[in-house]
Amino acid sequence: MLKRAATKLYNWVALMIILGAILGHFYPVVAVKMQPFADGFISLIKMLIPPVILCSVVLGIAGSGSIKKAGRVGGKAILYFEVVSTLALVVGLVMANLFGPGRSFHADPAKLDPKLVANYVTQAQHMTVADHLLKMIPKTMFSAFTDGDILQVLLISVLLGFAVAALNEKHKAPLIGFLENLSKAFFGVMHQILYLAPLGAGAAIAYTIGKFGLKSLVPMAQLIFLFYATCALFVFVVLGAIARIAGFNIFKVVSYIKDELLLVMATSSSESALIPLMEKMEKIGLSKSIVGLVIPTGYSFNLDGTNIYMTLASLFIAQALGIELTLGQQLGILVVAMITSKGAAGVTGSGFITLAATLAVVPGIPVAGMALILGIDKFMSEARAITNHIGNCIAAVVMASWEKEIDWEKFHANIGRSAKSAPVTTAVAVAEVPVLAGEAE
């Protein structure tokens, strides 16, 4: 039993998270020095995201059977993302108005230090809504991949996918074969990188607690608790209702992807589990074309956790500074956030940058007010990333259900089994962690 547990990456990640938390609390100086290990792991993951998205989206469109079908699936997915993302923004606004987490702060705007958030707002202050839309277009065909801009990579992938789908079979077949082999190679590289997941997760937790300390949570505990509660409410009530209508149980799905959620929580990055999630969705009966289209697109257009954070944090800052926003101003924040949230990267800190971009466009709330939540943003990024990840998982199943491209028998068999015990072949478990010294066969 112990030997079998030692071969599961999930258990090693959990163990390193605990050890990292202990190190961060009792030896903060040493823990802060662990940051390069955490950043290095995230960088390795990010290195693979652009080519994987390119292969997945192109294969998803070209392999859908027809351009018309690909356009229909893509259009439905975007419509679904916009509706659900808007619901997330509304939920954040409602919760902020109901509980008013910033009303007891009475912060003085004159005492805010804009230098604290200068790095986040320098570019945002000069960007209009039109600039955010234009940011979707890369400077060159290759700059999107070198810059790692997911939205730009997605645009190129969609255009290339439709171009390949329009080719005759003679020219299309070799390209699809090449991309399928290339995709398998990238997934193989990801499996190798995931061997470092325990180190990356432990280092990330150690750095966070060592840098900010658990005491930094106390003054802002109300906001943190409200944000986590709002994310949980959105996942299990809003997404839960959507899942129920589509014919599946969200609790069983969340249990099925718990390995990936642990990795996302530790690294504060939903990108760290993008590729394992895509593999898992195919293993439970979703078609490859749906997975290849919906999940990568969702990482730019379906950021539910980030959306909740933007409206909740915006109103918190306004309340803390004694600024009373009218309904029209709050709706203005919602509209702007719908645009600025698109393409936000799934890595830690991106939500804070997106918030800066939103406040820079919306008059009435000083961007310097972000200094009030700078110290606790890292602790809220975990909930953002987890909510984003679950949202994309649910979206993939819903879209597969709508398109009748899901093997429900296989789906329920795997989901049901995961509720009792995680399957041995879970994607994030790589395959097996190498056995310890002396145990090799």
CATH class: Mainly Alpha
Q: What is CATH's topology name?
A: Proton glutamate symport protein
How many domains make up the coordinates? Answer: 1
CATH H-level superfamily title: Sodium:dicarboxylate symporter
Corresponding CATH architecture: Orthogonal Bundle
Average of pLDDT: 79
Strand content range: under 5%
Can you walk me through this structure?
It is built from 21 helices and no strands. By secondary structure, it is mainly α. The protein has a single domain, classed as Sodium:dicarboxylate symporter (Proton glutamate symport protein), CATH 1.10.3860. The protein is globular, with a radius of gyration of 22 Å. Residues 419-441 have low confidence and may be disordered.
